Amino acid sequence: MIRDEELCRQVQEGNEAALEALVHRYHRPVFAYLFRLTAHRQTAEDLTQETFTRLLTHIHTYRFPRPFRPWLYTIAHNLYRDHVKAADRRSLPTDEPERVRPSPVVDISEQIAEQAALSQALRSLDEGERAVLLLRFFHGLTSAEAAEVVGVPAGTVRSRLSRAVRKLRDLLDPSHAQAGRSEVR
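== RNA polymerase sigma-70 factor (ECF subfamily) ==
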């Protein structure tokens, strides 16, 4: 399999098949990242489409052999931040977050409940915590790559990850939060 960085170099040279390969490889992961950030399917689809449009229009800024994946997620993350800023300016009422359709399993109601709890817990994190958590654990970027994407030092990413994991644990396992409070007293 051809490495992402090589495909990106080929796209710079005008190879349309290389562009198709990158879109095929990253469309679903970028959409998943943006959907988890926005909790709105249409917004995530629009931002995903714009991410790949920007990839093509800014392909000349990619410098081989820079890692491609953090570069692409930086584009997606910056589009998300621009979307949030524009939405704040418009002050439109937010839509109720959509639910991701679960895959068929034996006990689908339990899966839906767990998924809803996770979605709600993720939405309770602040933007910085949610972004680094998604990039690191859902999309497999290293702390350094996540730092590059969100534009903060790697140490800040590690701090945000620690806080985010602690908050998620407390939200998803109330008995853990109760035990932690009783130990402090």
